[in-house]
Amino acid sequence: MKKTVLTLAAILLVPSLALAADAELSYVLNTFSFLVMGVLVMWMAAGFGMLESGLVRSKNVATICLKNISLFGIAGILFYLIGYNLMYAGVDGGFIGSFGLWGPDDAAALSGDYAAGYAASSDWFFQMVFCGAACSVVSGCVAERIKLWSFLAFCVVLTGVIYPIQGAWVWGGGWLSEMGFTDYAGSTLVHSVGGWAALTGAIILGARKGKYGKDGRVNPFPGSNIPLATLGTFILWMGWYGFNGGSVLALGNAASAIEMSNVMVNTNLAACGGMIAAMILVQIMYKKVDVTMALNGALAGLVSITAGPATPSLGAATLIGAVGGILVVLAVPFFDKLKIDDVVGALSVHLVCGVWGTLAVPITNSEASFVTQFIGVVSIGAFVIVTTSITWLVLKYTVGIRVSEEEEMLGCDSAEIGMEAYPDFQRVSIAGSSGISGYNTPQSR
Question: Is 218 in a helix, a strand, or coil?
Fold first, then answer.
């Protein structure tokens, strides 16, 4: 009798034990996904650093490297001090979360309750690296003439307050999320936010000396290292698999694994489409293929697909990226005509294609609405324009945001940090530098 009771008890316990094991395994896999994909997104910081280092003049390379690594440090600290809770804690359909330090709470999981789905710290880490990416967009656009500490002060406000508040509207369960606005991995929430911040900064800061002639001529400033810029693009392309793939936010079941696979393939094809379309259009327009336009075309495709990489077919993803590549080629001379000096093409890639990618979501996602997507783009754009303009202007009229004309001519490396990236090379001034006349492919010697 006793043996029978034990047998029956074991039979009854097996399903519950299996369910507990499945829940724990799902918890582990989801946590693992957040951490690994977060590392890939962090790797994008290196991509931004290398891309920008290759596209600025040699006299500003060390400064751009310092800016890219220090802004990541600022993003990490500010997202811990205020950003995460402001973005996620108690938004509940509103406009803002709560103020306060973030701290992990995994007590339930340690007691065997895996209902949370993943470790709290893994989620924080994944969200933090996105915050840093938004700030990296600004760095290259305002390069070669902005003061180091003024830029870093701006990063404090952007990563600690501006980015988390607008992020709360969608990813934190805020009012735009309630309306049905969708942005899978951040075409708007990350890329166009960085783009709007860069736009206001570039306008308030002004163009580099000699960039625009009185006769309307655009003087090309060739970059210091095209191989380095190409390496940066490859690193960003690779990191984007974590950016978009990790935004599935799960890897604990077959459906999530399939979705992640589709997202990564669509991400790759969009980059391919953007690069090839940009190369073809540049060849048609200027009779030569510009390397930097090919690089920015790939990045344009990546930004374009980021808002909705899960729903398009492979062909649709390629076309969405291709439109992004075309937009970049057209947007670069457009900003130059407005005399808005964007050193690395960040506005064309991240702002223009961020908007395009967000508005393109309903093309392949029947649950999304063009009207709602438009409302989201406009409201977030307006919020970021106002808040970043105020921040830039406060900095301009207090500590100043631009180096002196003499320091700009000397280079920020010598003037700001007293160290050059290429100390063994003699700086030479080259008149009549070659370049495709009529548009600025970000760069100078």
Answer: strand
Residue among 139, 173, 177, 178 at smallest CA distance from 155: 139
Instruction: Please report where in the chains the tokens 């990191």 appear, as a residue.
Output: 239
Instruction: Write out pLDDT tens, residues 85-97.
Output: 999 999 999 999 9
pTM above 0.85, yes or no: yes
What ranges do the domains of the chain cover? 10-104+116-417
Label residues 405-428 b or e (16+ Cβ within 10 Å = b): eeebeebbbbbbeeebbeeeeeee
Rg (CA), the chain: 23
| Residues 293-352 pLDDT 10s | 999 999 999 999 999 999 999 999 999 999 999 999 999 999 999 999 999 999 999 999
Evaluate whether 189 touches 350 at the Cβ level (below 8 Å): no
Helices 314-337, 353-364: crossing angle, 10 deg rounding: 150
- Angle (CA) 78-80-86 rounded to 5° is 80
What topology is assigned to 10-104+116-417 in CATH? Ammonium transporter fold (1.10.3430)
Q: Which residues contact 252 (CB under 8 A, 6 or more apart)?
A: 25, 26, 27, 29, 30, 117
Burial class (CB in 10 A: 0-12, 13-18, 19+), 207: middle
